[in-house]
Amino acid sequence: xxxxxxxxxxxxxxxxxxxxxxxxxxxxxxxxxxxxxxxxxxxxxxxxxxxxxxxxxxxxxxxxxxxxxxxxxxxxxxxxxxxxxxxxxxxxxxxxxxxxxxxxxxxxxxxxxxxxxxxxxxxxxxxxxxxxxxxxxxxxxxxxxxxxxxxxxxxxxxxxxxxxxxxxxxxxxxxxxxxx
Length: 180
What we know:
Elements: E1 2-13, H1 15-24, E2 32-40, H2 45-48, E3 51-58, E4 61-69, E5 74-81, H3 83-92, E6 94-95, E7 104-120, E8 123-132, E9 135-144, H4 147-160, H5 171-178
């Protein structure tokens, strides 16, 4: 298992601003797709506990991630799994104790993101186009190691590129709330 701390700042943006930023940063040919498959119990224990459990698929690579809120950012635990194991879990659910969650879980939602990334000051910027259940939205994410420096860098980015801040909702929540 791999452990890390995720500190990120996010804002929804318009499709026009997304395209403008891709062009300004010269990233329009670097977009890659990743699909997040979200899991929970039938009575949404994880959602209630503010824990996100997903299998992320990038090409033929699959990774289980558990995200739990922390005082600063989120604590993440990752396990790399084979395509065969991922397909089994997607179809049948799995015992999440393998990643420290004491429940049997099933897939409840999914969301596909078309993402690009670029270094920016003390972190990494991501420009995301996400599609889920007939909806499409766009956002900026800025991942950093230091929350105070990162926050100031994020505000600086918003100002420099004339981006109006619009509070972003977690991708897992957006997918869950809009599933059919």
